[in-house]
Design a protein that fits this description.
By secondary structure, the chain is mainly alpha-helical. Helices cover 74% and strands 2% of the residues. The protein contains 23 helices and 3 strands. It has helices at 2-19, 41-45, 48-60, 65-84, 86-100, 107-110, 116-139, 145-156, 168-174, 177-208, 215-222, 224-227, 230-240, 247-255, 263-266, 268-295, 300-308, 313-324, 326-341, 345-350, 362-372, 376-401, 403-411, and strands spanning 38-40, 111-113, 159-160. It has a 3-stranded antiparallel sheet with strand order 2-1-3. α3 (48-60) packs antiparallel against α8 and α10 (177-208) crosses α16 (268-295). The longest helix has 32 residues, at 177-208. It is elongated. It starts with a helix and ends with a helix.
Length: 412
């Protein structure tokens, strides 16, 4: 149980935990989980002394002295408020000493947590100072206007707010049309590809289960598509689908499946057909292998007895093969459905989710948001949604397809 928890449940719990935060790696203030307010002392002390000094210079030149003095007083009161806390004071002095010595402060002293009241005062004060400087700059020509406004902005941005947002990511995703389209694409791909793989795979399994000359060679040859790495298969089929030189695209055009060669990868229907066809080609051998293993467990004496009783091949298939193959079909369908629902590499290499997101699956959408946009919070929420969908699919299979098997097991 502990191993199952560590391998299967713990990663999901971690994803769920991260999904509760607005976690963005492209934002310095949201690149980590923050449950409390904190201030970046390095950024603050890189700005505060120079802002005070610049304000003094402008006051000495009689540039809006009253307004600047008001801003200076607010900043000094805020600085005094920060240093009242003993823990902040210790880090404050350490960071200040490091900066004065032109040394880089360590990670252990860069950040200091703030009480909510102090943090709210910090935000209110820095916003007020920034407003005063901007409004005064419209009426007065400062000598160092850009420096004043820039330093005030840096001080304001030095505070880091808690990025806990609860279930907000799930609310946004469940109301996002792109997510539902990706989920629809995933379901379409899964249902069609698994259905074809089951029918074709069963036919191949029945064929290679019979004794004939060269059966071993045929079995080995059939497994070749499945043995090829998915990314390699996708690249190969991308060339075969090419609108100018693709052999498969040319064949499909000649037989009338498509109007022109370029339709395969640049149209919505053509792209979905292409990824499904490629997946069926690659994964049908896997389905055949699982079903073949089930066929070989059926005693040949059953067929001999049925043949003596006058049952034809179809009746033998319906009354003997399918019932006794049910457990193998359940396993094959379960594995392939879960694998198809989580498809990523095949579609990513073949179409990248295009054109116009027409082949974008839920896994690809999660990847784009998590790694391309570096939005780990929302990407984690999508990963949890994928897990929930997979869990539902598993329960449905076991409930409806495995009920008889479980009942038989209890009876035995």
């Amino acid at each position: 149980m502990l191993l199952i928890f560590l391998v299967a449940v713990w990663p999901v719990l971690q994803s769920f935990y991260f999904s509760l935060f607005d976690l963005r790696l492209n934002s310095p203030v949201k690149s980590e989980v923050h449950l409390n307010y904190s201030v970046n002392l390095v950024k603050y002390l890189d700005s505060y002394p120079f802002l005070i000094s610049t304000i003094d210079d402008e006051i000495d030149e009689n540039h809006a002295a009253d307004a600047l003095q008001k801003a200076k007083t607010q900043l000094e009161d805020l600085d005094a408020e920060l240093q009242k806390d003993k823990e902040i004071k210790v880090k404050y002095d350490q960071v200040n000493d490091k900066l004065l010595a032109f040394e880089q402060p360590g990670e252990d002293i860069r950040m200091a947590e703030l009480d909510k009241d102090v943090a709210e005062k910090y935000l209110k004060t820095t916003s007020s100072v920034a407003d005063i400087l901007r409004e005064t700059a419209r009426e007065t020509e400062f000598t160092q206007e850009k420096k004043l406004v820039g330093l005030a902005s840096n001080i304001k941005d030095s505070i880091i707010k808690p990025n806990f947002i609860g279930l907000e990511h799930y609310k946004e995703n469940l109301s996002d049309s792109r997510m539902w389209k990706a989920l629809g694409n995933t379901m379409t791909f899964t249902v069609i590809s698994v259905a074809f793989e089951l029918v074709i795979g069963l036919a191949i399994a029945l064929l290679i289960n019979k004794a004939f000359f060269g059966r071993g060679l045929i079995r080995a040859s059939i497994l070749i598509p499945w043995a090829i790495p998915t990314a390699v298969s996708a690249v190969m089929w991308k060339f075969l689908y090419d609108g100018q030189n693709g052999v498969i695209a040319k064949i499909f055009e000649d037989v009338g499946l498509i109007d022109k060669m370029s339709s395969l990868l640049v149209t919505d229907t053509g792209a979905m057909f292409s990824v499904i066809f490629t997946d069926v080609w690659k994964t049908t051998p896997y389905m055949s292998l699982l079903l073949l293993a089930g066929l070989q467990t059926i005693p040949s004496s059953l067929y001999e007895a049925a043949s003596i009783d006058g049952a034809n091949k179809w009746k033998q298939f319906v009354n003997i093969t399918l019932p006794l193959l049910k457990s193998s079909i359940l396993v094959a369908l379960l594995f392939r459905t879960l694998d198809a629902f989580r498809v990523f590499d095949l579609i990513w290499v073949l179409t990248g989710g295009g054109p116009a997101n027409s082949t974008e699956t839920i896994s690809i959408l999660s990847y784009k948001i998590m790694f391309s946009q570096t939005n780990f919070g929302e990407g984690s929420a999508l990963a949890v949604i994928v897990f929930i969908c997979v869990a539902i699919i598993s329960m449905l299979y076991i409930k409806f397809l495995g009920k008889d098997l479980l009942n038989d097991g209890r009876g035995n």
